[in-house]
């Protein structure tokens, strides 16, 4: 496709979605592909010795990243790495998480009420700069979007950024798509960006 607009906004309808059914149906119908992920601040703890650190917590769906490629150390394949295995979800994290928590690949970390098996170390996250939250206060820990409910962190009052990254049809232009989106949902409180201004602060 020609572009990748992203809509972001705080959680409203439910802990794991910020779009209502009509809005989601519209972007599914007018896009070639859609990926949904969330970002929030959280604390991660080592299950081994209870060391802790502030992190940027990210839950991604099975289509993520849609554009670009997740690169992990040791050349590990990202696909399926976050899935639940033997009753436990997987996670990948930036190297500084391992240093701060004094852990290594294969160890367990706790985020909220959930334990995750650390299965990979992030070498390059394709949309790290263009993330809507841009907290910049801690290293990344990434898990499956389906696993985020288990943490107990997605509650009313939590600051959660929801992102929907769209692959538009080849013939569609970002400006015309944005205008149509505004016309279809004039009262929506999302922010819409495209590849030309993916990170306005830079």
Task: Write structural notes for this entry.
- The chain is α+β, with helices and mostly antiparallel strands and 202 residues long.
- It is 14% helix and 32% strand.
- It is built from three helices and ten strands.
- It has helices spanning 21-30, 95-101, 174-184; strands at 6-10, 33-46, 52-60, 71-72, 89-93, 108-111, 114-124, 140-144, 161-167, 191-193.
- It has a six-stranded mixed β-barrel.
- A hairpin with a 2-residue loop joins strand 6 and strand 7.
- It is elongated and about 55 Å long.
- The chain starts with 5 loop residues before the first strand and ends in a 9-residue tail after the last strand.
- Mean pLDDT is 87; it is low at 1-14.
Walk me through the topology.
Layout: E1 6-10, H1 21-30, E2 33-46, E3 52-60, E4 71-72, E5 89-93, H2 95-101, E6 108-111, E7 114-124, E8 140-144, E9 161-167, H3 174-184, E10 191-193
Parallel strand pairs: 3-8, 5-7
Antiparallel strand pairs: 1-9, 1-10, 2-3, 2-6, 2-9, 4-7, 5-8, 6-7
Strand order of the largest sheet: 2-3-8-5-7-6
For the largest beta-sheet, the strand count, sense and barrel status come to: 6 strands, mixed, barrel
* Inertia-based shape: elongated
Distance between the termini: 24 Å
Report the C-alpha radius of gyration, rounded. 17 Å
């Amino acid at each position: 496709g020609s572009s990748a607009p992203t809509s972001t906004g705080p959680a409203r309808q439910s802990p794991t979605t910020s779009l209502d059914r009509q809005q989601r149906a519209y972007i599914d119908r007018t896009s070639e592909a859609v990926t949904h992920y969330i970002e929030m601040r959280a604390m991660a703890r080592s299950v081994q010795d209870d060391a802790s650190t502030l992190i940027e917590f990210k839950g991604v769906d099975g289509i993520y990243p849609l554009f670009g490629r997740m690169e992990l150390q040791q050349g590990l394949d990202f696909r399926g790495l976050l899935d639940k295995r033997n009753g436990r979800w997987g996670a990948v994290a930036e190297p500084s998480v391992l240093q701060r928590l004094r852990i290594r690949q294969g160890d367990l970390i706790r985020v909220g009420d959930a334990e995750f098996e650390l299965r990979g170390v992030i070498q390059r996250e394709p949309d790290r700069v263009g993330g809507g939250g841009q907290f910049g206060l801690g290293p990344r820990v990434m898990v499956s979007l389906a696993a985020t409910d288990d943490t107990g962190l997605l509650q009313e009052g939590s600051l959660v950024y929801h992102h929907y990254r769209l692959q538009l049809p080849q013939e569609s232009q970002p400006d015309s798509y944005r205008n149509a989106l505004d016309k279809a949902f004039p009262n929506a409180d999302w922010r819409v960006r495209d590849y030309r201004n993916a990170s306005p602060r830079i």
